[in-house]
Amino acid sequence: MNEITIDMPAMFSVEEASAFRDTVKTYISSGQTSFVLDFKNCTFIDSTGLGVIVSLYKKCAENGGTIRLRSLHPNVYKIFELTRLTNVFEII
Fold first, then answer.
1. Across the chain, what does the average pLDDT equal?
2. Above pLDDT 70, what percent of the chain?
3. Hey, how many other C-beta atoms are within 10 angstroms of the C-beta on 17?
4. pTM for this structure?
5. Which of 15, 68, 75, 78 qualifies as a FRET site for 89, CA 20 to 30 Å off?
């Protein structure tokens, strides 16, 4: 499985979500369906950011792919935990 690693922005909110969505959709349209989202620099995520990631997860899963999360900051991990998305995503 070829995975593409994407570095997440420091603040993943509504302002960054559109550009991120477009980037990943470009990869998906070219046949790529497996991603590692690297959160090493990301200390904040809002509901829009979560929504974009969940939407892309569904798209990848429909095509046999995956989205894995790496290096979640404790603040970001807490959001994933509160929304129970830790049960959906593989966190590495």
1. 94
2. 99
3. 21
4. 0.94
5. 15
Phi, psi of 23 (to 5 degrees): -60, -50
* CATH code where residue 54 lies: 3.30.750.24
The number of domains in the chain is 1
For the record, the structure tokens of 70 come out as 């790496």
Q: Are 69 and 91 in contact (CB under 8 A)?
A: yes
56, HSE (Cβ side, Cα atoms, 13 Å):
29
Taking only the tens place, the pLDDT of each residue in 44-54 is 999 999 999 99
Which of 4, 75, 80, 71 is CA-nearest to residue 40? Answer: 71
